Structure formats: structure tokens, C-alpha cells
Amino acid sequence: MTYKRLFLDSDVLLDMFLKREPFFFHTQVLLIECIKGNIELRTSSLVIANTIYVLRKQVGIVKAKENLKNLFNSAKVLSFEFDAIESALSSDFTDFEDAIQFYIAQKHHCDAIITRNIKDYTNSTIPVLTAEQFLNTL
Fold it and tell me: Which residues form the PIN domain (predicted)?
């Protein structure tokens, strides 16, 4: 299957910004593939809020904001609306936040969710892959 529109979860963005090994390399390749026009990167406003919360503690608020502004050149930020909350509340997902991410990704026709937290997406009808697994499909 060809995956064009990828939804990035918080842990993937944190791997990218904090250069967490051994995952950083794979996130860099995702960005390169996006810049080349081979894939579209998407995330949600909820992921952005969660990411900046963690980043500001690690690198400071100025650097955190700078990182996210740079991301906006490559990734599209999807809105976090009530329908995602409503669906998540009615779902069988064990992790509420991941349920919200799934419903946002589904609403915006994402082809895959990229995360390191695959176990919390067991009820997903969208393929869920790590960055490394996705890159192995190219």
C-alpha cells in the first residue's frame, strides 16, 4: 500500500526536535521525503500543544516555538474539533488522547499514523506504523 498523507503523533515530533536516538534519523528522512514532495506530513493542534508542553521544559520556550514554526513549513496542522472528542468518548480505544488523534487523522483522510506508541492504536482502522516501518515501505 502507498501511504501519501501521514499523521505524526507527539512522540515522533519529540524524537525529531530532541534528536532522540535511535529514532531521530527516521524522522529526518520523513522530513526529507516531505520536502521532496513524496509524502505529506500532518499533525493536530492537540499534538502541537502536547509537544510544546514537553519541549519548553527540555529546551526552553523560545527554542520550542522556533522548532514548531519551522515544522509549519513542512507539515499541515489539522484542527482539533468537538467531533473528535465525541467519537473518542464513544470508542473502544484505551487511551483517550490517541483516540482523539485517530479520529482527527481519519476525518482528514490520512493514510497512516506514524507513532512509536502502536499499542494504544489497536482499534485503529488506519495503518499505524513507526517511522522506521513506514520508511521500509518506500
Answer: 5-119
Question: Residue 88 is placed in which grid cell?
Answer: 473518542
Return the CATH superfamily for domain 5-135.
5'-nuclease (3.40.50.1010)
Instruction: Report the alpha-carbon distance of residue 47 to residue 14 in Å, rounded.
Output: 10
C-alpha cell at 121: 492504536
- pLDDT (tens digit per residue) in 108-138: 999 999 999 999 898 899 999 999 999 999 8
Q: Where are the domains of the chain?
A: 5-135
pTM above 0.70, yes or no: yes
pLDDT digits (tens, 9 = 90+) for 68-77: 998 888 899 9
End-to-end CA distance of the chain: 10
Q: How many residues does the chain have?
A: 138
Task: Specify whether the CB–CB gap between 28 and 135 falls below 8 A.
Answer: no
